Amino acid sequence: MLRRILLTLLLGVNLTLAYSQEKRDTIIIELAKTSKVIFTIQDRADLETLKHYDFQALFQDILTKLETNDTTRLAKRDSTESENQQEEVASNNNEEEDWNLHRNEDRDDDDDDDDEDWSNHHVYHGGKWGRTWQSFNFDFGTNNWLSDGKFPDNNDELYSVRPWGSWYVGLASIQRTRLARKFFLEWGIGVNWYNFKFQDDNVKIVKDDDGTHFVADMRDVDYKKSKLTASYLTASIIPVVDFGDNSRKARIWDGYRNSFRIGLGPYIGYRIESHSKLVYKEEDKHKDKEHDNFYLNNIRYGLRLQLGYRSTDLFLNYDLNEMFVTDKGPALNAFSFGIIF
């Protein structure tokens, strides 16, 4: 009977590891009317140790101690194990004072959300509070700007932006720290790019002592594209309420996650590069590219809204300060929105 149990246990471990990669692998075996064995594996490398483990001796020791009401830590009685095997088993268990209770004490409600691709550590080791997960966010969307709350194309301004082609791209390393059961803080730093593609393809940006001006290039050529690009090093702190109590937010490739989450918080960025580009064709294709600050503010700051449902997260950024230095360019507040990958 004992040998059948052991064979069932090992078979169940291998089957579970083959089909479950995202969650902690757990086998529950009913032994009798009120008895069961719970077997949990977090690292597939442990399988090599388990292959050489004397489970028959272990179960015999368990039964002996249960009969005598001895709940002390079980001794390893496999005298046939090699010295290297014993050292490996001891290394895997050197922090376990009670083999039957240790895993249950360390588990919390969101264990199923843990992923091997996420590195986690405990800021506060005494409980759930302070546990942090790290990820890389990729923002992709579109950007535009407003003048006194209105789009510039309402007045046919030359700096009116074409939504399609004005792409916003962001890359960031984000830490997600649990502050309460459903309350998290997402904080991190990254790089993002504004790309303002103008409605008219012949718009040229001219900078002089008076400021930055948007003028129409009247050469007799075939204009293809005109745009202004600015990149920023940006830090953000976003408080998030996750009603699904997930330790990490879902990704599109994660599949179904039935939860809603919302976050709102500040960000601040420092301009690291900016340039204009005018593309036209005159016999051959030409690109007039000029690197300059164009009196853009070196600092941008604003608010970021994040909304998520199931496996989709959206963002909306709004700059509270203007793009250009006061009286050196048009009074414009930039914004962007899109999806988080």
Features:
single chain; 341 residues; alpha+beta; 8-stranded antiparallel barrel; two-stranded antiparallel ribbon; 5 helices; 14 strands
Indicate the proportion of strand residues. 35-45%
The overall pLDDT, averaged over residues, is 79
Query: In terms of structural class, how would the helical and strand content be classed?
Result: alpha+beta
* Total domains: 2
Shape: elongated
Low-confidence stretches: 13-23, 73-86, 88-127
**Number of separate strands:** 14
Q: What is the radius of gyration computed over CA atoms, rounded to a whole number of angstroms?
A: 30 Å
Distance N to C terminus: 51 Å
Q: Can you give the helix content as a percent range?
A: 10-25%
Strand order of the largest sheet: 4-5-6-9-10-12-13-14
Order of helices and strands: HEEHHHHEEEEEEEEEEEE
Total DSSP helices: 5
Your description of this structure?
The longest helix is centred in the N-terminal third of the chain and has 18 residues. The radius of gyration is 30 Å and the shape is elongated. The strands form three sheets. An eight-stranded antiparallel beta barrel has the order 4-5-6-9-10-12-13-14. The protein has a two-stranded antiparallel sheet with strand order 1-2. The protein folds into two domains: 106 residues, no CATH class; 228 residues, no CATH class. It contains five helices and 14 strands. About 19% of the residues have low confidence. The chain starts with a helix and ends with a strand. It is an alpha+beta fold and 341 residues long. A hairpin with a 1-residue loop joins strand 10 and strand 11. 16% of the residues lie in helices and 44% in strands.
